[in-house]
Amino acid sequence: MIKKLINPFYYIAGLKSLALGLAIIILSSTIGYFSHTHFPSIISIKTSPDMPLWYFIIQNLINWLTISTFMYIAAILFSKSKVRIIDIYGTQALARYPYFPAAFIGFSEALELFGKYILWTTLKMGEPVEISNIEIMVAVTLIVFSLLLTIWLIALMFNAFKISANIKGSKLSIIFIIVLVISVIITEYLNYQFTLKLY
Amino acid sequence: MDKKLPISCPSCSAGLKVKSLYCENCETTITGQFELPVLLRLEPREQNFILDFIQCSGSLKLMASKLNLSYPTVRNMLDDLIGKIKNLQHHD
């Protein structure tokens, strides 16, 4: 059971994982639209401004396509196996399923309130905010929860890459870290430009 | 009880060789020094993988569905096996 949660790609890949992964991405985007939660980079969860539904969907697709494309290029360059493009894109789509529960985080107002409270108390930005101890506890719990989901997502992306590209050992870890860092920077930039154009 | 063919020495882990062969029919014993074929030097699960692969007509897709594993998992198993066989042949 734990193996299936951490490494479902041992059992599922290709078209099946692509269809499942895309369904999860679209569902997460739709829930994010209602809860005002968006994912401005491949490993980031934030409360979002008011945006149309397609903004959330495109943002999630940008994240998935960017990491998958870089992983495919890395696999072609460094793998000795015959790598199928459908396995890379399919497993990376399915790897994003921990962000499905993450899309619900925005339904609680505690996180946004806590953010405003921190801004006011540390930087004197915005307006004074009154926040109860319970709201602080809820916000901290949600922050820890989103952090755990992000760690789970990274573990899934790593296992997806390991199986679909068949790269092993320290070479795998080094390539994965480089691809992850490049993808974070690029998705952050692309999503920032995309958001700017909508304002 | 199925006896497992030992392929490495339990004392020093070196690869074993065949010293004698015996005919049950006429009780003839042949002694000498013979190398074990590459396929017999593989682990039983690896030998089973090869048998399954042949029975699936060499189709990784069929193998994946038979073993309830994903296609890249089965392809990685095959690639590991190819690597091991090449390594064994290289040491011959």
Question: Keywords for this structure?
Answer:
heterodimer, A: 199 residues, mainly alpha, 8 helices, 2 strands, 72% helix, 2% strand, B: 92 residues, alpha+beta, Arc Repressor Mutant, subunit A, two-stranded antiparallel sheet, transmembrane (chain A), transmembrane helix (chain A)
Using DSSP, what is the number of strands of chain B? 2
Into which percentage range does the β-strand content of chain A fall?
under 5%
Radius of gyration of chain B: 17 Å
**Could you give the distance between the termini of chain B?**
32 Å
| Oligomeric state as shown | heterodimer
What is the count of helical runs of chain A? 8
Categorize the overall geometry of chain A: elongated
Structural description of this entry:
The complex is a heterodimer of chains A (199) and B (92). Chain A is mostly helical. Chain A has one domain (2-198). Helix content of chain A is 72%, strand content 2%. Chain A has helices at 2-6, 14-35, 53-78, 85-94, 99-102, 110-123, 133-165, 169-198, and strands at residues 37-38, 46-47. In chain A, helix 2 runs parallel beside helix 4 (85-94), helix 4 runs antiparallel to helix 7 (133-165) and helix 6 (110-123) crosses helix 7 (133-165). Chain A is elongated. The mean pLDDT of chain A is 92. Chain B is an alpha+beta fold and 92 residues long. Chain B has a domain at 36-91: Arc Repressor Mutant, subunit A, CATH 1.10.10. Chain B is 45% helix and 12% strand. Chain B is built from three helices and two strands, in the order E-E-H-H-H. Chain B has helices at 44-55, 60-67, 71-91; strands at residues 18-22, 29-34. Chain B has a two-stranded antiparallel sheet. The longest helix of chain B has 21 residues, at 71-91. Chain B starts with 17 loop residues before the first strand and ends with a helix. The relative contact order of chain B is 0.11. The chains are: A mainly alpha (199), B alpha+beta (92). At the A-B interface, loops of A face helix 3 of B. Chain B: It comes from Plebeiibacterium marinum. Chain B: Residues 9-37, 42-86 form the DUF2089 domain. Chain B: Pfam families: DUF2089 (PF09862), Zn_ribbon_DUF2089 (PF22747). Chain B: This is DUF2089 domain-containing protein. Chain A: The chain crosses the membrane at residues 9-34, 54-78, 99-119, 139-160, 172-192. Chain A: This is Yip1 domain-containing protein.
